[in-house]
Specification:
about 400 residues; alpha+beta; FAD/NAD(P)-binding domain; 12 helices; binds 8-demethyl-8-dimethylamino-flavin-adenine-dinucleotide; p-hydroxybenzoate 3-monooxygenase; monooxygenase; FAD binding; 4-hydroxybenzoate 3-monooxygenase activity
């Protein structure tokens, strides 16, 4: 096949990009390895920043989330020094999150795209981007039945995540990867249970971190820190709930509403950034460009922001021959990415102390407690937190 822009991956990054390109009449195609149903069933992120909602609204892609999402603006910290709450919509820039499951957002974006006549090939895996810095860029693909194929393109957008063909096709001499392993592992859980508190809960405990994040009235996400290398099914449901009770200090602060655990994902907290995010005709966006630890829930938000920047750059270039956006894309994204990385890293340290660090355990835990104490007591620290927590 042939298209002006071949988009790899139908996650938030790829689908926002494809919708914006299509709206301006750019000839594009999305190649997605998964089939349609598994794409719509993949539960991941849920917290959308105000800026993300604005971007989606600006382009008419927000009806679903405005109708079915709900705003959220409180987080509660529970530690050995007690508990406190921050209503971040009254701090910093005064913005809340919108809670909307990522798979619903993906389903909406897909509906918009296909309703507008967008081309998408499911069950089509990109295997490599070829000749990205030459005259004849293309993408080699393999269908689910194993049939090979080729798409010629003027531009290729690698929105195919951390293990995708976009990343793999970058030559080591042109693009470098900077990596940080936070040395912490979370077991991510989805429970068939209503939320247990009307806030995001972050619990710091000597047995490790535990987190509570609302998703819908029937489904709640929990995180429980475990040792690196723990298999997802190592703990029984009962052990998980007992551990969550203990770390969230349910005895003191109220019981958790238990339910069947319907999904488990082991998440090693890692971050990386590629520099630059472009090699010739190939551009990276979303997790393909930078992986970010889920501690501050920035991944999907960065993906949407980068997709909008990339769409503008490609539209300017393809419709007016204006290449300024294309030239500056990488630097502009990296600016956002490093700021988000810095904040996520700060959150990892706030929530883990010695369990994530390398060095004297008492020293690291004392720093963690001091950081939490500043957040509890200092209004300016709270404003800073709110601004960075909801912002991208
Ligand atoms: P995605 O969503 O991974 O989509 C990539 C798509 O590319 C397809 N693909 C390929 N297609 C063709 N050829 C290939 N070779 C391909 N290889 C892959 C895949 O099937 C997929 O459809 O990347 P994108 O668009 O960059 O979006 C990034 C976000 O998905 C990610 O950053 C977030 O989910 C991260 N994240 C969170 N982010 C938030 O902003 N808020 C949160 O609350 C939040 N919670 C989370 C998270 C990530 C989690 N996991 C699973 C690491 C919670 C968890 C547990």
């Amino acid at each position: 096949g042939v298209a002006d822009v071949v988009v790899l991956g139908a996650g938030p990054a790829g689908l926002v990009l494809a919708n914006l390109l299509l709206a301006r009449g750019i000839d594009c195609v999305v190649l997605e390895r998964a089939d349609r149903d598994s794409l719509r069933a993949r539960a991941r992120a849920g917290f959308l920043a105000a800026n993300t909602v604005r971007i989606l609204e600006r382009h008419g892609l927000a009806d679903g989330l405005l109708r079915r999402g709900h705003t959220h603006s409180t987080c509660e910290f529970r530690t050995e020094d007690g508990r406190f709450r921050l209503d971040y919509s009254t701090l910093g820039q005064g913005e809340p999150h919108t809670v909307y499951p990522q798979q619903d957002l993906v389903a909406d974006l897909l509906t918009y795209y296909q309703a507008a006549g967008g081309r998408i090939r499911f069950g089509t895996e990109a295997t490599a981007v070829l000749d990205a810095d030459g005259d004849d860029p293309s993408v080699s693909v393999r269908t689910a039945e194993g049939r090979p194929g080729r798409w010629r393109a003027r531009y290729v957008a690698g929105c195919d995540g951390r293990h995708g063909a976009g990343r793999r096709s970058l030559p080591g001499h042109a693009v470098r990867r900077f990596h940080r392993d936070h040395r912490v592992t979370w077991l991510g859980l989805l429970a068939e249970a209503p939320p247990s508190l009307d806030a995001v809960g972050y619990a710091v405990h000597e047995r490790g971190f535990a987190g509570h994040m609302a998703r819908t009235s029937e489904i709640t996400r929990y995180y429980v820190q475990c040792e690196r290398g723990t298999p997802a099914d190592a703990w029984s449901q009962e052990r998980i709930w007992d551990e969550l009770d203990l770390r969230m200090r349910a005895k003191e602060y109220g019981p958790l509403r238990r339910g069947r655990i319907v999904q488990r994902t082991v998440v090693d907290l890692e971050s990386d950034v590629l520099e630059p995010l472009r090699h010739g005709a190939l551009f990276l966006a979303g997790d393909a460009a930078s992986l970010i630890s889920p501690s501050a829930a920035k991944g999907a938000n960065l993906a949407v922001l980068e997709a909008e920047l990339l769409a503008r750059a490609l539209i300017d270039d393809l419709t007016r021959g204006d290449s300024i956006g294309v030239e500056s894309y990488s630097a502009r994204c990296l600016d956002h990415i490093w700021r988000a990385q810095e904040f996520s890293h700060w959150m990892v340290e706030l929530l883990h102390g010695a369990s994530g660090g390398d060095g004297d355990a008492h020293f690291l835990n004392s720093m963690r407690r001091s950081r939490m104490a500043s957040l509890r007591t200092s209004r300016s620290q709270q404003d800073w937190f709110a601004e960075r927590y909801v912002g991208v």
